[in-house]
Predict the 3D structure of the following.
Amino acid sequence: MTPADGEVPAPGPATEYAERFVQTPSLQALRAVIEAGSKVRRVVARRAGLGESELAALQHLILGARGPGEVARLLEVSTAASTGIVDRLVAHGHVERRPHPEDRRRTDVHVTDSGREEVLGLLLPMFVELARLDAEFDEDERAVVARYLTRTLQAFDVVVDQEGLVAQPPPSLA
């Protein structure tokens, strides 16, 4: 049903909630951190001559070798797209395919030393600053920060885990 000419439709429960939602300084800072994280990924990818998907794949592969299918699942792309991403990383010299140690029919994708060094080198200034920041806190303060960030991840999972589900009305602020 569409409103008659000149009528403004009533806002839905999500809009009503958002209009009354108060952004505290910690929530504003969190939003800024999330936006900055996206920017860091774009900047690092550009400086490394990679696309964001390639950088994301490389970040997963730095943690350990993976099969192409696992790379596809981690990136939430098709196996064909994952193959293209890995091919581009191989062409850059950032990764190499090696036979799986136990199943010769499979291959694993390994980060090369130069690929690891390039990406970590681009991120090193940030790591140094984050280590300095972390050192400013005592154990109790770090526990509060860790609890806040862990619960933030749980809040993100509420959206991620509801893929395909009908959104529930937000809770009332009353």
Observations:
- The first strand starts at residue 95 and ends at 99.
